[in-house]
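User: Working on a comparison across species. This one is 5-methyltetrahydropteroyltriglutamate--homocysteine methyltransferase from Liquorilactobacillus nagelii. Can you predict its structure so I can line it up against the others?
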Amino acid sequence: MTNTTATKLHYDIVGSFLRPAELKAAREKFKAGEISVADLHQAEDQAIEDLVAKEKAHGLKVVTDGEFRRSWWHLDTFWGFSGVKKIERQQGYTFHDEETRAESAQVSGKVAFSSDHPDLAAYKFLHTLTVNDPEISDRQSIPAPAQLYAELIRGEKNRQAIAKYYSNEEDLVADIGQAYHDLLLALYDAGCRDVKFDDCTWGMIVDDNYWKNRIQEGFSRDELAEAYLKVNNDALVDLPEDLQVTTHVCRGNYHSTWAAAGGYAPIADYLFARENVKSFYLEYDDSRSGDFAPLAKVAAGKDVVLGLVTSKHPELEDSQTLIKRVEEASQFVPLEHLALSTQCGFASTEEGNKLTEKQQWDKIELVIDVANQIWK
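Assistant: Here's the predicted structure for 5-methyltetrahydropteroyltriglutamate--homocysteine methyltransferase from Liquorilactobacillus nagelii:
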């Protein structure tokens, strides 16, 4: 939320953008064997260069590559680690109105960072577009370590795969934390000073319906929350002081649908009070996220970015309503430690949400305009 070359900002984005038609076409041609991987990378490069120019033109000071090189917001990152392989499940993730593609990840060896990780290569290109521009800085978004842990223990077959390489889950947690720590240091060495962990694990375990299923599998919510907290914090140990790591929490974002519902109260003592990130980007665009009271648990001095503007639907929120909601949140977190953003990205997967590119930018302009009214 803080530009490395500017004063503190009070407006922000979560990071993913709708894929342009040209990029979608290039991906389809690549899948069909009609173009080479070099051709695909060239199409991605051009799309990202165009996006950064648009981000800057619309007033953003912290920019991303839109996650244009990814198919998924999380799985592409997982597959880039050593000891993690891509698999196909019988069923995809279940959302409120839809089911996703059935791809997933599974342990295939000891989990470790690989120097050819795709997120590192992606960041290096983004940095070439910002390094000589004093008006903007760049951010790399990656799924949280807890998200990888949650994926690897999901289902009996995955747990059987873990048992082939790990005698206990504590060692798996340690390796995931180390793999992420090494990725963070590699990004830092490449010039990155702003990394965001995207993390749906917290947004899922607050859901009572979801939790009933996990109880049937023998999980304890408190034990799972402790594991999520540990693996995230393990990745954050002994990092450079000028590397900002933040986190974003939502309850699923796929093709304008959602996966979970529930307020932050059940996990506030873990996430808000004890996770060693600098800022929390929190979904708050509708009643599924509950009220602001759990924000009282946010550790002193940390920032909260309120995701009050939905990225799921094109209708623009009322400015005065947004202002009032920020005022309500300021009862629990001081106004100077609050900011405004969209509730999630616009395309957590390559399918994207159900709105146009213009409507996407209208949402961002609304965020900036309202933030400028509040924080004059």
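For your comparison, note: The chain has one domain: 11-374.

User: Helpful, thanks.
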